[in-house]
């Protein structure tokens, strides 16, 4: 291959993960990885590997997680049952130039660095991890929302104030990944949403003659069922508009402990999927 052909060669980036209980930090990781190259190959770990290395069974099955990651707008290819200990041979097999991961430490069941072989080979890069939310955090919130006793037995004393802290803390911490200067006054949720959406959104303009379809819901804990619902709605027209219910509205029909995710978190998760064209939420009114 001559220098001219080499210059035209697309940069292929590899990013792997569990992607369990898909949330906006997963979305932001995929977005950041895609910005480092031209093609993003996402590796998704199997149920067995997650159980072995994380010490718990994933909430969402591997089939569900494969389907969701394929639908994310920044993902070009998916590797199923991706190794928890990626080696150079894996990158070569999928024609990837390097692997990328957040700056949080990732270890195997034996406590060793999951990416040590790629680091030694100079085929590894990092980006800033998105603070404020994690799959573990979501599982704690879900336990709080559904069964106080099971949560208390697992995690200790979880009062109503603790529940509120778990839900509100991400809003306070999210400013860190947007490089908002810390101060006495935290940014409002609408302010944070606007800043995140500026990075996440890729609004498609509605064309003359397009048949628009509108669907609304809470889209809490976005999953395969939500994706299928949106795909069916999209099949009825050319332009899909998705409405997302406010936290206050969700509480009125699901109870005070819902939604599990805030409006900010739900919108930022939803916007990662390519099936929709436009999203409306309460701050649009």
Helix and strand topology:
Blueprint: H1 3-8, E1 12-17, H2 24-34, E2 39-44, H3 47-54, H4 62-70, E3 77-80, H5 88-93, E4 98-102, H6 116-120, E5 124-127, H7 135-146, H8 148-155, H9 160-174, H10 189-200, E6 212-217, H11 224-234, E7 239-244, H12 247-254, H13 263-270, E8 278-280
Parallel strand pairs: 1-2, 1-4, 2-3, 4-5, 6-7, 7-8
Helix pairs in contact: 2-13, 7-8
Please, could you describe this protein's structure?
- The chain is 42% helix and 14% strand.
- It has 13 helices and eight strands.
- It has 285 residues and is an alpha/beta fold.
- It has helices spanning 3-8, 24-34, 47-54, 62-70, 88-93, 116-120, 135-146, 148-155, 160-174, 189-200, 224-234, 247-254, 263-270; strands spanning 12-17, 39-44, 77-80, 98-102, 124-127, 212-217, 239-244, 278-280.
- The chain is globular.
């Amino acid at each position: 291959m001559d220098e001219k052909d080499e210059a035209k060669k697309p940069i292929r980036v590899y990013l792997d993960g569990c992607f369990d209980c898909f949330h906006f930090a997963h979305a932001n990781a995929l977005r950041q990885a895609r910005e480092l190259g031209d093609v993003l190959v996402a590796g998704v770990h199997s149920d067995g590997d997650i159980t072995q290395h994380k010490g718990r069974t994933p909430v969402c099955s591997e089939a569900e997680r494969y389907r969701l990651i394929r639908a994310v707008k920044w993902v070009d290819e998916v590797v199923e049952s991706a190794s928890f200990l990626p080696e150079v041979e894996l990158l070569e097999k999928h024609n990837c130039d390097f692997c990328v991961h957040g700056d949080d430490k990732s270890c195997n069941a034996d406590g060793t660095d999951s990416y040590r072989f790629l680091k030694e080979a100079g085929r590894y890069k990092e980006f800033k991890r998105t603070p404020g939310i994690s799959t573990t955090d979501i599982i704690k919130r879900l336990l709080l929302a559904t069964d106080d006793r099971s949560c208390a037995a697992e995690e200790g004393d979880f009062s109503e104030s603790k529940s509120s802290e778990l839900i509100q803390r991400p809003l306070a911490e999210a400013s860190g990944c947007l490089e908002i200067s810390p101060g006495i006054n935290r940014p409002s949720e609408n302010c944070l949403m606007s800043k995140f959406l500026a990075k996440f959104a890729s609004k498609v303009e509605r064309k003359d003659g397009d048949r628009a379809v509108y669907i609304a819901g809470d889209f809490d804990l976005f999953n395969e069922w939500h994706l299928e619902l949106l795909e069916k709605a999209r099949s009825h027209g050319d332009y899909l508009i998705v409405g997302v219910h406010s936290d206050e509205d969700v509480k009125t029909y699901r109870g005070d402990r819902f939604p599990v995710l805030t409006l900010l978190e739900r919108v930022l998760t939803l916007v990662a999927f390519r099936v929709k064209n436009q999203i409306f939420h309460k701050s649009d009114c």
